[in-house]
């Protein structure tokens, strides 16, 4: 047993907008005997937003002994991260979960990765600008922690404080949370904005 590493030769074809590109030479099992594998596809520098990446998996034989081809099409967006919140995210002092799906931060398939709170910027009415590392948010951790060893989903519990940077937060105020993503394909920092209103 152990974690299997399998050659992709003859198993996968990768194209961007129909043009073949070189793919990874191996794929790695996500854990001992999981039967699930991941591979990392490095996209060419010329890849742009809205390009379509097509991955074809040429299964030599499935369980019935038939050959089959699985095709997965991915349209590239400027950044892969998505921010969402759950539970009372708009009430002052009420705990809520900030969750982000960010495959680029999933660097270790065997352990939970972390994204520091300083990567998230909070902007509120009246010129409030700070990061979620500000102790006023009463976060349950110094980072967003991956929900499992290889989920690419990270979360933290925070509260919207009554006051930030000496300014009072009022019901009806708008706020946004920005994620500073340093791992986008273009290498530039993208801001994903979650917009909310204090209820």
* Number of helical segments with 4 or more residues: 0
CATH class of the largest domain: Mainly Beta
Estimate the global geometry from the Cα principal axes: elongated
Sheet of most strands: 5 strands, antiparallel
| Helix/strand structural class | mainly beta
Instruction: Please give the order of strands in the largest beta sheet.
Output: 8-9-14-13-10
Task: Kindly give the count of domains.
Answer: 2
The appropriate CATH architecture of the largest domain is Sandwich
Q: C-alpha Rg, in Å?
A: 21 Å
Percent helix, as a range, is under 10%
Number of strands: 18
Look at the structure and give the mean pLDDT. 82
Briefly note the CATH topology name of the largest domain: Immunoglobulin-like
Strand-residue proportion: 35-45%
Show unreliable segments. Answer: none
A few lines on this structure:
This protein is mainly β.
Would you write up a description of this structure?
This protein is mainly beta. It folds into two domains: 5-75, no CATH class; 82-197, Sandwich (Immunoglobulin-like). It contains no helices and 18 strands. The strands form five sheets. It has a five-stranded antiparallel β-sheet with strand order 8-9-14-13-10, with no helix packed on it. The protein has a four-stranded antiparallel β-sheet with strand order 3-2-6-7, with no helix packed on it. It starts with a strand and ends with a strand.
Notable traits:
0% helix; 199 residues; mainly beta; five-stranded antiparallel sheet; 2 domains; Immunoglobulin-like; 44% strand
């Amino acid at each position: 047993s152990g974690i299997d590493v399998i050659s992709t030769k003859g198993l996968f074809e990768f194209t961007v907008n129909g043009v073949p590109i070189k793919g990874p030479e191996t794929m790695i099992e996500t854990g001992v005997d999981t039967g699930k594998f991941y591979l990392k596809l490095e996209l060419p520098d010329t890849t742009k937003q809205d390009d379509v990446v097509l991955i074809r998996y040429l299964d030599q034989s499935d369980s019935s002994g038939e050959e089959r081809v699985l095709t997965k099409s991915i349209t590239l967006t400027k950044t892969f991260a998505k921010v969402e919140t759950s539970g009372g995210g708009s009430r002052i002092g009420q705990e809520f979960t900030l969750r982000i799906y960010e495959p680029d931060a999933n660097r270790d398939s065997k352990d939970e990765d972390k994204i520091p709170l300083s990567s998230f910027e909070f902007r509120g009415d009246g010129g409030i600008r700070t990061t979620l590392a500000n102790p006023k948010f009463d976060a349950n951790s110094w980072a967003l922690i991956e929900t499992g060893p290889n989920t690419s989903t990270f979360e933290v519990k925070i509260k919207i404080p009554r006051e930030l940077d000496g300014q009072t937060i009022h019901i009806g105020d708008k706020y946004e949370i920005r994620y500073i993503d340093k791992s986008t394909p273009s290498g530039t920092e993208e801001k994903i904005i979650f917009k909310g209103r204090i209820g």
